[in-house]
Design a protein that fits this description.
Helix content of chain A: 25-40%
CATH architecture of the largest domain in chain A: 3-Layer(aba) Sandwich
Shape of chain A: elongated
Number of strands of chain A: 13
Distance between the termini of chain A: 72 Å
CATH topology of the largest domain in chain A: Rossmann fold
Order of helices and strands of chain A: EHEHEHHEHEHEHEHEHHEHHEEHEEH
Oligomer: homodimer
Chain lengths: 417, 417
């Protein structure tokens, strides 16, 4: 087998940033510097500005020299949330991937690393196939990243543990706020297709509550996932039962909840007089679902001629993915997946997606490893909450609790009178 | 002067909870146990469930015995956010205060402590005056608490530093998220009448930027306070200028912004077809302002026939006041104000509001003290951002930065390429 040609390496970050995505970037730089750059296989280590946009851009400014950054600065960047190189929402199609390949040719790139979700894995796959067809020697690696935790083959994905930690901490504090003033509190959590992040709210309880009736669970009393068809009637009945018994109710709901036909719930809750001049439902922002559910509950639970209950909704928004304090496990693993991609490249792998595998979940002995999967096994498709993590229509199981708890780091102890 | 009678002490928590309000509760219990309880002046230390509601309630369950709680549990409660006794939004009028006085008589209460904002100070004032008029010996103390930081006589109020820390951290992470994907990001911060908490977003910049043009400031580029009349036209021009230059713009805006007539901005931004059947503007939840501003900016900055800019809004909501991680200065001061109230009572003060005074703001030598003020000096009225903290129509000054920075604790360093 002839020797693989030497050339430059390029690294990009794509999609919604996470709090630890720069750990993967720095892990890649470290891994390349320790391996392929030392052996002379990799000449320059370049970063793409705003993902593949930086590579397809003609002229100056799309690529930066990452090897020129000193270790102290790299470490500081690793500890900083959000994509230091900038990110992009572009999902390259065939023609776009052709331009990516042109960018590789133009810049003598022989190693292509893309940190992102299933779309990024797909970009790697297409580019890799195009390069092979064109007999341009190029090695393509996908490094996993997404707070949604929805990549196939992965036990979990870097970015998720820190976001899950934020969601758990938020529900811990908010549960006490709700208890102190009473009423119904709805928290809308990110994750349009997969419910892992919403499910992480359950960690706020301090213990698994599999099988307990909603009012007997510590808050959050109710958890609604996109994997479970959402019925507004059942929801109202659930909330009413908890509120009647406790005078309060904390609810975690995924932004992606859908009814049994797959239709999103937010628009269903908007009243008909909130349509625009063209008759379209007005969904002006990400807060529509929270406000819609709050309105719906308030109306549904106000007795005829009686006082409306206190109902509040918060939509957690972007802070979930960029909060500066992270999960220690996440920090370590996000660095490791980057380093592992460089190692796979050094070992001669032609293309792969790095995956996270859990090797031990014994109490106080959580361990994980990086391994490889084919790009096609991760590309495009979405992983959902498995059945064993879902308890009925409004909760998660002990199995989910055991799965998620080791990822988020120590949680503070909340004491009550 | 005849000796003051001995009897029971009662403590309550009122209004929106904070992350450190239980420090004040525990400080009071400690202070009473070290002083008046030791000397026999205070027999029982009682807690009111849900503020004065617990005291006016007939029968069981409205009061709890705080002296029965061991020190380890008290410390754990102190470190837990939100009101452990429960809170209330009741703002007692004259008749309600009469019932509070009855509750004191019924429970042999001679020391009344209320942790809260200016309404709680006013409750203390009215109850104190009623007791004097009725010749019922009662000493009444207000202990300051509010994330809004809007109490007169106080340099700042317990609860504000931790909330300010949350707002600063949120803007730090979110600024990087905004930089990585570009576009316009609007963050709506709590504080309906006072802009201190919104202003704390400026700490995310790492340094004061007094006098810099918006696009030359690190994010947040624009800060809008309720103290400064808000013009939608000027706002759009501000955003457009930053966005044109940087391709992004991060904005911190108070939920309480008003136009020059004092009218709230949220309803002004709602379109006419979003009125209900009675013609009333629909403001379904707390997110209306953020969504309204986002819509307004998107429309205003979309070129004719061109592509709309990416505009997103987050409404920070309740997490600002209940996030489990706090400012160390806030923890210490919230404990101190509680202890100080017990000490004032032990020294024979008949009624007072504890106030926070800054005694040193030398670099790395911030110091504060608790002192007393008359209840009437704090009751009811609202403190606003002073003129020297406000820079033009969309920023805060170096003086605000110097004021706020020592309160929030160390902030992480963010590094960029």
């Amino acid at each position: 087998m002839p020797e693989f040609v030497s050339g430059n390496a390029v690294i990009g970050q794509s999609g919604g940033p996470t709090a630890v995505i720069n750990q993967s970037l720095v892990g890649l730089v470290e891994g390349l510097q320790a391996g392929l750059a030392t052996s002379g296989k990799v000449k320059r280590i370049l970063g793409m500005r705003h993902g593949v946009r930086g590579l397809v851009k003609e002229g100056e400014g799309g690529l930066v020299d990452l090897a020129a950054i000193d270790t102290a600065k790299l470490e500081a960047i690793a500890a900083t949330p959000s994509a230091a190189l900038g990110s992009t929402r572009d999902k390259p199609d065939d023609a776009y991937c052709e331009r990516i390949l042109d960018g590789c040719r133009r810049n003598d790139i022989r190693y292509f690393f893309y940190i992102g979700g299933n779309d990024s894995a797909d970009t790697c796959r297409i580019v890799s196939e195009k390069a092979a067809a064109a007999r341009y020697e190029l090695r393509c690696f996908h490094v996993p990243k997404t707070i949604d935790n929805d990549l196939l083959e992965n036990d979990h994905t870097p970015g998720f543990p820190s976001a899950a930690r934020y969601v758990a901490l938020a529900h811990m504090g908010d549960a006490l706020d709700n208890a102190s003033l009473g009423g119904i509190k709805i928290n809308v959590v990110m994750g349009r297709n997969a419910g892992f992040l919403t499910a992480a709210a359950a960690l706020a309880r301090g213990a698994a509550t599999d099988g307990a009736a909603p009012a007997d669970r510590p808050a959050p009393h109710l958890i609604y996932l996109p994997e479970v068809p959402f019925s507004t009637d059942a929801f109202l009945a659930d909330v009413e039962a908890v509120y009647a018994q406790l005078g309060r109710c904390q609810i975690a709901v995924s932004e992606g909840i859908r009814d049994e036909t797959g239709a999103e719930i937010g628009p269903k809750l908007m009243r008909s007089d909130e349509r625009d001049a063209h008759g379209n439902v007005q969904l002006s922002g990400s807060d529509a679902l929270g406000d819609g559910l709050a309105d719906f509950v308030k109306k549904g639970l106000t007795p005829a001629g009686g006082k409306a209950p206190r109902v509040r909704a918060d939509t957690f928004g972007y802070l979930q993915r960029c909060w500066p304090y992270t999960s220690p496990v996440d920090v370590e693993e996000a660095r490791a997946v980057g380093r592992h991609a460089a190692e796979l490249a050094a070992k001669g792998d032609a293309s792969a997606s790095v995956i996270m595998v859990r090797t031990s979940n014994a109490p106080d002995a959580y361990r994980s490893e990086c391994r490889r999967a084919d790009l096609a096994a991760v590309a495009r498709r979405t992983r959902h909450m498995p059945a064993e993590f879902i308890a009925g229509s409004n909760d998660v199981t002990q199995a989910f609790h055991a799965y998620c708890l080791p990822l988020v780091g120590d949680l503070p102890k909340m004491e009550r009178l």
